[in-house]
């Protein structure tokens, strides 16, 4: 039982330190390899002509961004 408690405390300490680092640096946690950007792919769907479902999602996303910008206080 003491091993479980010790592991739990270490895990909580790890998350606490990560959150303090995030608050101080204002930077998101990211991988070291760079992901798809290293390969020259800017987005997950890198096709020239996206399908209708993708176009609809992109339109909804843009509408949501426009609404947030329009209702922004600061």
Automatic annotation (TrEMBL):
Pfam families for this protein: NqrM
InterPro entries referenced in this protein's UniProt entry, alphabetically: NqrM
Domain of life: Bacteria
Name of this chain's protein: (Na+)-NQR maturation NqrM
Natural source organism: Shewanella litoralis
